[in-house]
């Protein structure tokens, strides 16, 4: 399973390194969404970092949706499913590999967006650094949940519109937990329970994904 | 026997609902603190019970049994979609009746309360389930994907249930029982409340049965359409 996961993750990351769709399309979208969030609040309120963690995570959710769509589109390329079926790859390994690749991509984009939040939304640099581990864990959870929901939606003409409807309600608790952990880091408070919620969700999504990915792919 | 019970289900539901309305609006006294506003207690908790536990629970159990190979059957898939659709209707009713109570009590139609928000999210999940079914034409794929989604979505139900304990909420805690499992409501008000639970549960069974029959009819029509299309294709090939 681990070998398959590494193979699939390597495949997805190589495709991304060559095509640079995330770097040239999804990341600029995230930057623009962050700018729009600041404009929507107005210059006076956007400069106060109280709203910054929420805006930052809202932008991350939107970026995640696009990245999940991109990750799933790789599986829809002609011959990919047939190749996976012919090679007899363990579906659980495929799920873990896709989740790992997506997590790495999201963390990379998350780092850039967090740096922008420091500059544009006036988030304290020290607080942003303290919040970094919670951001990484939240993004890993979003990647696992996104990969599962991407497989549930599958392919078809309405997949791109269906994915947000199904995935955003599942992302909502992660948005709350991430925002609270970030806010706690900015105010230098210890908030262990938001970490616990995110880690439990990560374990749950990984377990469900490992069990259900094969069933979804078979259907 | 089964058919007689099924035929009695509709009239019995209507009779019990009418009795609940009469007892709730006319016979029971107004509350000492909340006045007539408290009469919503004969609707809102019962509607929420059907939405969250009866119908969403039925959809979840039917979905789990569908995914288990030994019990997999098209009947379970039909029960799941029927229960989920009824659940969506009752979730909307739960939010609407709660909102009607919230406006005079809290001063707003909507509060960013953990129970309200998580219930609204459950409504979006139920709507998403139905959208997912419409997006898949293949019956087996449709059934499998929606069953997995229903199981994942069901995680939200215990979150809603315990939200009033986990977070500081505007929404009150347990309405019927105290922490020591003794009744908070007494006399005629308690009996009317109990009757409302029975009446709305019967209404759920009635709606579920009607929706299930609709699903069977829809599947039969799809099958008939396919047979007719195949027959037409065969005829096209003949000289």
Total domain count of chain B: 1
Overall structural class of chain B, as computed from helix and strand content, comes to mainly alpha
By DSSP, the count of extended strands of chain A is 0
Radius of gyration of chain B: 21 Å
Structure description:
The complex is a heterodimer of chains A (219) and B (239). With 219 residues, chain A is mainly α. Chain A is built from nine helices and no strands. Chain A has one domain (2-218). Chain A is 86% helix and 0% strand. The mean pLDDT of chain A is 87. With 239 residues, chain B is mainly alpha-helical. Chain B has one domain: Four Helix Bundle (Hemerythrin (Met), subunit A) (Up-down Bundle), CATH 1.20.120. Chain B is elongated. Chain B starts with a helix and ends with a helix. Classes of the chains: A mainly alpha (219), B mainly alpha (239).
Brief write-up:
Chain A has 219 residues and is mainly alpha-helical.
Topology:
The complex is a heterodimer of chains A (219) and B (239).
Chain A: H1 2-19, H2 21-41, H3 43-46, H4 52-75, H5 80-87, H6 91-120, H7 125-153, H8 159-186, H9 192-218
Helix pairs in contact in A: 1-6, 2-4, 2-6, 4-6, 4-7, 4-8, 6-7, 6-9, 7-8, 7-9, 8-9
Chain B: H1 2-27, H2 44-67, H3 74-106, H4 114-135, H5 139-153, H6 156-166, H7 187-237
Helix pairs in contact in B: 1-7, 2-3, 2-5, 2-7, 3-4, 3-7, 4-5, 4-6
